[in-house]
Amino acid sequence: MAAEAWVGSWRPHRPRGPIAALYGSPGPKYGLPTNVGYRLHDPSRSRAPAYSFGVRGGGRQPERSPGPAYLLPPGTTARGPAGTPAFSLHGRPRDLPPPRTPGPGRYSPERAAPLTFPRAPACSLRSRTRPGAGQQTPGPAAYQLPPMLGPRVVNKSSAPNFSMPGRSNVGAFYQDLCKTPGPCGYRVVDADVYKRRAPRYSMLARNPLPGDNTHKPGPGTYSPEQQGRQQGVTFGIRHSNYLVPLIVDVLD
Questions:
Q1: Which of 146, 151, 168, 221 could form a disulfide with 217 if both were Cys (CB 3.0 to 4.6 A apart)?
Q2: How many angstroms separate the CA atoms of 231 and 227, rounded?
Q3: What is the rounded distance in angstroms from the CA atom of residue 5 to the CA atom of residue 237?
Q4: What CA–CA distance (Å, rounded) separates 247 from 24?
Q5: In 3D, which of 239, 248, 243 has the Cα closest to residue 21?
Q6: Distance (Å, whole) CA 161 – CA 150
Q7: What pLDDT does 1 receive?
Q8: Between vectors from CA 217 to CA 213 and to CA 218, what angle results, nearest 5°?
Q9: Residues 37 and 50: beta-carbon distance below 8 Å
């Protein structure tokens, strides 16, 4: 019955050569640029000229006038209102005020002589000016001349000066030598300062031995009587050799 299920000479067998389905790959992740269109075209291929389709024009725009929204008075023509010229009656306009022009008596020609004819300079007399405020000028006693003695003379060179200080107690004949520090007053200099320093070793605390602090089962935890049992066989799921595993994270 099993031999009659197959048609022809083909029977299930292992592939003779490698098949791409048996190997994992990132799949069609990398796409080549397209050869169709104008945008994002493959730069290694020649691109033919492209023509775009425009939008059909709307043609002549319709007139958007407000229409017969204006109310013209009757009898109005293209040249104005029809009929004979008409005149309107208004009130009489007011008379203009008379001009206020100055007469001959308003002028003074005698005062124009200083401006029109040359003349000698004239000096005017005016009152005496007020004296200014008292100036607080320093007197002769306010100035202080530089000293003529000592090293601080301004325009003269000074001779060397010698000062007389107080008597020093150090190095004098009456110096108390009992206060001089003895041999124990000096600190002994370490030999590592002026000689080659020898190696030093430090003494640390004793390190504990490494151990395992985990809880271990005792003899009563084991069951030797269960070792004689035979292990059973379970039925699993049949896996296909052509199934590609799912790759979630792909490394670039």
A1: 221
A2: 10
A3: 24
A4: 8
A5: 243
A6: 8
A7: 47
A8: 115
A9: yes
